[in-house]
Structures are given as C-alpha cells and as structure tokens.
C-alpha cells in the first residue's frame, strides 16, 4: 500500500515547512520535495496544500475497557470504540484500569488492547490499577518481561480516599520491580501514579526518591492539575527533573487549572519541556465527591478533549504549535520508550494527522492506513460496523401487506 501526501506544512513535531511525504506499507518511506509514486505502484495521492501534517497523537491514559463503578454497577463506563480514538486523532493509546479491578481485570485490558491493534491502532497497557497488586503474573517484573504490551505499572492511586492506601514500602517495592522489569524487558517501566485530592499529594513519591536509589524518572504522576497545591508540587517535581502528566477535559476545574492555561503558565516560565505530557483519561468515570466524601455527581471522560485542549492552548494562548504538539507526540513516545512513534521521520510508523488551517482534524492515518477522511471515519471497529448495520435494519420498517 502506497500513499503520497503532497504540499503539507509538516510539523514533525518541529516545523519542516511545506514538504511531501511518502508512506509505503505501515512506515514513512520518504520526505522531500516533488515526490511522486513510482510507475509500478498503486496508491492514493492527497494534496494537503494549506493543511498541517503532524504526528499521530499518543494518549497515554485511557480506560480502554471501561472504568467507573463508584456509584454501583450501573455506573460502570463502556469500553472505548475504534472511531472514538481515530476521530480524536489518536493513533497510539495506553490502556489502564481504575477504581474497579473486580469487574474489570488485567486479562480484559490486555484482550481489549489486542482488539484495538487488530482494528488498526497501536496499543499498550499498564499493569495494575488503583490497587498495586492487579498483575497478570505474580509479579510486575514478569509482566514487563513476558508480555509485550505491558510498558509499566498504573494507574496506582495515592492521596485518594478510593486508593488501597499503599504503604511506602509497597510503593518502593513496586518502583523497584518496575525499574528492573523495564531494564530486562527493554521498556520504560514507569510507575503511572494517580493523584487524588488528598493532603499528602506527591509526598509519598518524594520520600521514595529522597530515601532510596530509585530515580525520579521512574515515576509518571498524573492528574497533577487537579488542585492548586498539587500543581505547585508538580511544578517543583518538574524542576527537579521529573515528569508530570496533565489531564485534559477538566471543565469543572478552576480555569487556571485547566490544561490550556497550565500549558501557557509553564511555557511562560520556560518549563514546558520534554517532560510534560497531556492525557485524556478517556472513558474513565468522573465522579464528584463533596467534602464529606459523598458522591454527588458522575460523568464520563472523553478522548476528544485531548486535541480540544491542545488546540485551545495554541489558538487562545499563543503556545507555538510544535511546542504544544510535543505533549501528545514526541514527549510521551520518549518517556514511555515507544519505538518509531511520536515523530515524522523516515522509517517511523505512518501515524499522521492532517489539520485544517484552523487546526481541526481532517484526516488520520494509523500505521499507514487512512482511518479518517474529510472528518469522517472510513474504518470502523468490528462491532461499530455490525451495530450500524443492525440499527439500519431495525430502523427500516418492514412493509406488511394486509
């Protein structure tokens, strides 16, 4: 399969000006000027003059097989569907478990990751959940070494009334397992930490870094923009050499804690570097608790907020496009050691997003295959296709002679 993309303004994520790009199979074969398809090749040609061409987005925190459950069985969220991800420009996704690791399991998470791969995306998983002991094998080390898709531990909950309240020694052991397992499996072995609104914040992790030999790079704390004091801790963590992950789509947060404004603040301080990422928390539940810990509301996360918030940071707050793009492309690819991902380079995977001049998602390619064309999905998941066909049958009344 050959695809020639011409006259696009490339951001790889660094700006490369207007250039042609050739996809062969699932890889980027060539970048240059005045490229053409060989006479023997059959393929498609896209003229993207006036459009931006950027790397496919990496969402490193999605509840791909659903989450939730805090309000009982009926509050369990559904699993994500292929076109939800591709419409959002996401070509690589990392799945995780959340609060519910009883009706959800690592086996289910792994099978869903394989399903998304079969449907055309690239998918990895964290081993664990809010509880640190939800592995497939009996140790995290084994999961990292023996299961290709496992790239770290997560999302392990701390400073949250829903967490398993892991002791410092448990977190130390988990981080050590992640580090050695990552080394043996040639993976990042990060510990993806869920941060709640508890008063301890990042303190349990900071103590481990201070008192042990485990480096700060082993931890990837998320939801760092959940509250002001936590964000302040996160900024100090970033200054010390750590990685922070911001959660998009938090529209009920104070404006200064929402992703576009936080990116602006970090940029103005010279801190919007290659250790800042943004994720969606897609298909996770969004429970709202009052000060007494009583559930008062429930929502569901959407993967579409990932690009929505990045786009707003560029258009509203003037963050350079290449700088903003790094938080969902090259940064997570580097931190999570995702080979051939996150950049437009010869030999890299053909994961691409074409954006209009006002930065709306127009076309999406995943591993060289067009998934979105003219803002509409051309590839649907197995049951998305079956459901559409079923609904068409149901909604078409049968004519009965009488």
Task: Please write out the topology.
Blueprint lengths: L1 E10 L3 E10 L2 E6 L10 E5 L4 E4 L1 E6 L19 H6 L2 E6 L10 H14 L2 E6 L12 H7 L3 E9 L9 H18 L4 E6 L7 H9 L7 E4 L5 H12 L4 E4 L11 H10 L7 E4 L8 E2 L5 E3 L7 H11 L5 H6 L3 H6 L16 E4 L5 E6 L2 E5 L2 E2 L4 H14 L7
Parallel strand pairs: 1-4, 1-5, 6-7, 7-8, 8-9, 9-10, 10-11, 12-13
Antiparallel strand pairs: 1-2, 2-3, 5-16, 14-15, 16-17, 17-18, 18-19
Describe this structure in words.
Its EC number is 3.4.19.-. It holds the Pfam family Amidohydro_1. It is found in: Cytoplasm. Substrate binds at residues 68-70, 99, 130, 162, 226, 285. The chain is of the alpha/beta class and 402 residues long. It has helices at residues 82-87, 106-119, 140-146, 168-185, 203-211, 228-239, 259-268, 305-315, 321-326, 330-335, 382-395, and strands at 2-11, 15-24, 27-32, 43-47, 52-55, 57-62, 90-95, 122-127, 150-158, 190-195, 219-222, 244-247, 276-279, 288-289, 295-297, 352-355, 361-366, 369-373, 376-377. The chain folds into two domains: 2-54 and 344-384, Urease, subunit C, domain 1; 57-336, Metal-dependent hydrolases (TIM Barrel). It is 28% helix and 25% strand. Strands 1, 2, 3, 4, 5, 16, 17, 18 and 19 form a nine-stranded mixed beta sheet that branches. A hairpin with a 5-residue loop joins strand 14 and strand 15 (295-297). Helix 3 (140-146) runs parallel beside helix 4 (168-185) and helix 7 (259-268) packs across helix 8.
């Amino acid at each position: 399969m050959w695809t020639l993309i011409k006259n696009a303004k490339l951001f790889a994520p660094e700006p490369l000006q207007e250039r042609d790009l050739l996809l062969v199979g699932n890889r980027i074969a060539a970048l240059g000027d005045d490229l053409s398809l060989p006479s023997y090749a059959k393929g498609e040609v896209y003229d993207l003059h006036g459009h931006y061409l950027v790397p496919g987005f990496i969402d490193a925190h999605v509840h791909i097989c659903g989450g939730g459950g805090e309000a009982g069985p009926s509050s369990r969220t559904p699993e994500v569907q292929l076109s939800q991800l591709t419409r959002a420009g996401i070509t690589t996704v990392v799945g995780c478990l959340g609060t519910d690791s009883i009706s959800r399991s690592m086996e289910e998470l792994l099978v869903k990751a394989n399903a998304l791969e079969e449907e055309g995306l690239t998918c990895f998983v964290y081993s664990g959940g809010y509880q640190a002991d939800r592995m497939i094998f009996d140790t995290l080390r084994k999961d990292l070494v023996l299961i290709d898709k496992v790239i770290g531990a997560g999302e392990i909950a701390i400073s949250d009334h829903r967490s398993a309240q892991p002791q410092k020694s448990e977190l130390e052991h988990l981080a050590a397992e992640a580090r050695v397992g990552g080394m043996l499996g040639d993976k990042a072995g990060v510990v993806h930490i869920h941060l709640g609104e508890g008063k301890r914040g990042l303190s349990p992790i900071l103590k481990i870094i201070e008192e042990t030999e485990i480096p700060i790079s082993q931890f990837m704390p998320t939801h760092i923009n959940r509250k002001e004091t936590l964000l302040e801790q996160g900024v100090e963590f970033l200054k010390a050499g750590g990685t922070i992950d911001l959660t998009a789509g938090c529209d009920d947060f104070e404006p200064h804690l929402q992703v576009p404004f936080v990116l602006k603040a970090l940029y103005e301080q010279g801190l919007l570097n290659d250790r800042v990422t943004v994720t969606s928390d897609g298909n996770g539940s969004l429970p709202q608790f009052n000060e007494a810990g009583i559930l008062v509301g429930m929502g569901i996360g959407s993967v579409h907020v990932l690009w929505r918030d990045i786009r707003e940071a560029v258009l509203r707050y003037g963050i350079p496009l290449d700088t903003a793009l790094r938080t969902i492309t090259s940064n997570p690819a580097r931190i999570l050691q995702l080979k051939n991902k996150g950049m437009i380079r010869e030999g890299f995977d053909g994961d691409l997003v074409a954006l209009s001049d006002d930065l709306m998602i127009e076309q999406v390619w995943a591993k060289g295959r067009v998934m979105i064309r003219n803002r509409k999905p051309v590839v649907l998941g197995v049951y998305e296709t079956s459901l559409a066909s079923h609904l068409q049958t149901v909604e078409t009344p049968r004519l009965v002679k009488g």
